[in-house]
Specification:
Elements: H1 2-13, H2 28-49, H3 54-57, H4 60-73, H5 75-104, H6 109-124, H7 131-138, H8 142-166, H9 170-178, H10 183-220, H11 226-235, H12 239-267, H13 269-278
Helix pairs in contact: 4-12, 5-8, 5-10, 5-11, 5-12, 7-8, 8-10, 10-11, 10-12, 11-12
InterPro entries: MetI-like, MetI-like_sf
Keywords: Cell membrane, Membrane, Transmembrane, Transmembrane helix, Transport
Organism: Achromobacter animicus
Length: 281
């Protein structure tokens, strides 16, 4: 009896093992800013010491001066606004024009087999090759830049939607058929919801393609746009202004990417919840 009491007392007295405290983590934004500071600091130091030619590579200080000059004059906002609207219009129209037929091909396996080789052939051709034709057909204005963006984004969206529709779970489709569901109901309840994650993922890819189409059109023939700024500055060997155009394109990419994130949160709320529960660290 005494032995049991002693063992119980010992068990009560022994402290529970302490949980390891999570280590300190530097905020993500601070880490990102530190990396940028190191990169730009090394770039500026290399130019000032003569290790890198400022004429061929520019310098962060020169980029800031060139960017500030364009901001004060209002040129940067004007050109960036032109590129943003052309890219956004091409992205939205191209994605819709490509996604709807891609999903619709699920209705007819025969039609999909007939069309698929043509889609692969069109996708294998660099869309930039169509740029001179698009400029001739639609002129040198904003419409030609939007058309180029549509030509790049639509085929990607179509192929992605078509593949996502084909990958819809066949077992669930068979179960719904056995329960008397129509083809339209299967399409609405199974095919479209299962294809949405792949379609949203394609949105992010199409952001880059939309910007590429717009900028290429501005390279070929345009009086406005960030592509026009980059083309003119590179012709004059003004590398600092070229970098201003490139960094501005990155900023536009972030804006469009944020728009896709908002669309994903509204269309795929269930995916956001799953993601949040999976990665609780």
């Amino acid at each position: 009896m005494t032995q049991t009491s002693a063992s119980l007392a010992q068990g009560v007295a022994s402290p529970a093992p302490a949980r390891p405290r999570p280590g300190f983590r530097v905020p993500v934004l601070a880490t990102q800013l530190f990396i940028l500071a190191v990169l730009f600091g090394a770039w500026e130091a290399a130019v000032r010491t003569g290790a890198v030619s400022g004429f061929l590579f520019g310098s962060p200080a020169g980029v800031v001066q060139a960017g500030w000059k364009l901001i004060v004059s209002g040129e940067l906002w004007e050109h960036a606004n032109y590129t943003l609207w052309a890219s956004a219009a091409g992205f939205v129209v191209g994605t819709v024009v490509g996604t709807i037929p891609g999903l619709a091909l699920w209705y007819s396996p025969y039609g999909a087999k007939v069309v698929e080789p043509f889609l692969v052939a069109i996708n294998s051709v660099p869309k930039i090759a169509f740029a001179p034709l698009v400029i001739l057909w639609f002129g040198t204005g904003l419409i030609s830049k939007v058309a180029l963006s549509i030509s790049l984004t639509s085929i990607v969206a179509l192929l992605a939607a078509f593949q996502a529709a084909k990958d819809a779970d066949p077992d669930i489709q068979k179960m719904l058929v056995s329960l008397g569901a129509t083809k339209r109901q299967i399409f609405a309840k199974v095919v479209v919801p299962s294809a949405l994650p792949a379609i949203i993922a394609t949105f992010r890819i199409n952001i880059g393609f939309a910007l590429v189409g717009t900028v290429v059109g501005e390279f070929i023939s345009s009086k406005y746009g960030l592509g026009h700024i980059i083309f003119v500055a590179s012709s004059l060997y003004d590398l600092n202004t070229v970098w201003v155009g490139i960094f501005s394109l990155m900023a536009l990419g972030f804006v469009l990417y944020a728009g896709v994130d908002i669309a994903e949160k509204r269309l795929l709320r269930w995916k956001d919840q799953t993601y949040a529960t999976q990665f609780k660290l």
